[in-house]
Design brief:
Number of strands: 2
Order of helices and strands: HHHHHHHHHEEHHHHHHHHHHHHH
Radius of gyration: 22 Å
Structural class: mainly alpha
Number of helices: 22
Strand order of the largest sheet: 1-2
Distance between the termini: 62 Å
Amino acid sequence: MLIQICFVALGVFAGIYVGAIPGLSVTMATSLLIAMTYSWSTDTALAVMIGVYVGGVYGGSRAAVLLNIPGAPSAVATTFDGYPLAKKGLAGQAIAVSTLTSVVGGLVGTLFLCFASPLVSSVALSFSPRDYFLLTLMGLMLVGSLGGKSIWKGLFSAAAGLMLGIVGMDPISGLGRLTFGNVNLRGGISYIAVMIGLFGVGEALFQLLHRNQPIVRQKVDSIRPPKNKLLKLFPLSLGSGVIGTLVGALPGAGGEIAALLAYDTAKRVVRHPEVPFGEGAYEGVVAPESANNAAVGGALIPMLTLGIPGDSVTAILIGALAIHGIRAGPMLMTESPDLFNNLVFLLLLANIFLLVLGMMGIKLFAKMAEIPRNILLPMIIVVSVIGSYSINNLTIDIVWTLVFGVVGYFMKYYDVPVGPMVLGLILGPTIEVNFRRAILSSGGLFSMLGEVVTNPLSLVLLVIMVLMIVSQVLSSRSKNKEPVSPGQ
């Protein structure tokens, strides 16, 4: 037991700092651990893997807050308000809030895993390709929340991301699309390289315009926000944790969709934040961080109960269990109840260590935002290049990072949001695959549309999506009608 506790702590510590480095994903770290731990005992191997999983998902928020570079795709939404907080000198408080709410979300996911696994897995199993299509399309509708002041610029950015997402091999026929005979394009464009370029290199180039501005001193005397503020944010953290768990339990949905849905929900639910979303609202950090960490527990639910991976990390965990002679699936809870209970315990323990280790070193991390720009900006570009190369060890990923760094610079210069482009690039292939599968399984487009309006689950998703579109249109109109003060 003591050895397990030590390895969970080690895994969480390593995961935090792996997740904080752009390009070094949790999936990569977990896959490397299989080669290192195959000769270990099952309990010890799972302890370090669960620790890395939990720590790595949270670690992405640190780079998102300090450098405006999502350390992981699930931290994209954290940049929207986390980085503005750092620019105000509140990086320490932003990281502290993300740590505390990540733990809350992680505990919500653990409770669902412990007590509601059969129910949640049965709901996840009832999702057909058309339901996944509607869910991912719903995620794309978040462009209204990510589009900033102009929904049209957001739509343009999302459309560009969708176009980039179709480059490469057709997922069903295997034919090349928009490859122009170039071998490097047949594998598509890495969304992580694009993300690092748009957020990291693009931000560094844009900051060159303001390189002579004084450095904002970070307030690190007390990194913990007042208790009354934490109590005010607690209900939002719980609600976002529930969203993250339910979305994470859907195979293939992942923490990025969970974080974006939670962020959009927070914008609709929180009526009067102290600061508008996108300008440094703590709610904009709480919602995605709670959701993406809750998605960890959610992703383990279909893995353990159905043998279906909830995301790429749980797919690796299934392989790790198989190496140790354990088959994940419906019989796991009856044949190996001790293993299930042990996994729940490890996940609970990992979140406890996340609270302790996550709060350590925040003041030191926050000081990174005070590094002079003539030193910090080259460091960001170098880290971005190294991170993009580490994805697949391909030079073409460095090229994409630098190219989209320039694209990101011009997008920021002309106030075109970069979030919708990454959203379109991530969700585009998933939307296409599930749309085509839905048509094939239904026997035609009109048959598929008929099933959407006759199936209760599909109809509910459709109604929610329509309501989202209507609310975004009304919100956009109300913003356009707001009077502009003389000083603006």
